Amino acid sequence: MPCQSGLITTRLDIAGPHSLNEPRRPNRKGATPLKLCAELGTIINWLAVDNPMHKRYQPRSGLTFCNVYVHDYCYLSGVYLPRVWWTPSGIKALRSGERVLPCYEESIDEQRVNDLWYWLHDFGLRFGWQQSRTLNNLQKEVNQGAVGIIVARHKQHEFSGHVAVVVPETKNHRAHRICGGQIIAPLQSQAGTVNFRYGTGKLNWWKDEKFAESGFWFHK
């Protein structure tokens, strides 16, 4: 989303289409799994999704902001997941070779979770996203410093799906495993009706009957 000169978007602001551009925000640039995971932990604690002062992520008026939180996490991690994306008319014009300026609610619009589901399937591979078949593989990649997400599309497009970040395990926070080491709930971080930095959430939440489809994705 184009940003006017001097406009600073912070965690204290109500969520909008702009990405965070606060000074001294953390990032992920490590060269080893240990360093990458440490940097992801710093990002989680800096975003502090459970801090009530961070209005950007707090539910209000029946709205939740899981998509905004996941975008911010990916953005600070150096991974592209759109907060805004081209509208159908904007894509049509681009494909015809026209020069299209990003104009809010004309050539670009905000991406809800259902939109992100389609975006990942249509464009994710081009931007480095890979789909994981299992939770064990997803958590393994994340524990090596990758960015991981679980996304579920609502059956009705006008209703929001849900997306959560899968985060590296720590000494104090672990995925939920059963006998044999099989993961049944990866370690997650989310905004939603309940916001938390670390947790395993409701078991198999992505299989809820209100969701049409779900998927596991990671970006190294």
Description:
This protein is an alpha+beta fold and 220 residues long. The protein has a single domain, classed as endopeptidase fold (from Nostoc punctiforme). The protein is 25% helix and 20% strand. It has a 6-stranded antiparallel β-sheet, with helices on both faces. Strands 1-2 form a two-stranded antiparallel ribbon. Strand 6 (176-177) and strand 7 (183-185) form a beta hairpin. Helix 1 packs across helix 2 (66-76). The longest helix is centred in the first third of the chain and has 15 residues, at 33-47. The two termini are 24 Å apart. The model has no long low-confidence stretch (mean pLDDT 97).
Topology:
Elements: H1 33-47, H2 66-76, E1 84-86, H3 88-95, E2 108-110, H4 113-123, E3 130-132, H5 135-143, E4 147-154, E5 162-166, E6 176-177, E7 183-185, E8 188-190, E9 196-199, E10 211-219
Antiparallel strand pairs: 1-2, 3-10, 4-5, 4-10, 5-8, 6-7, 8-9
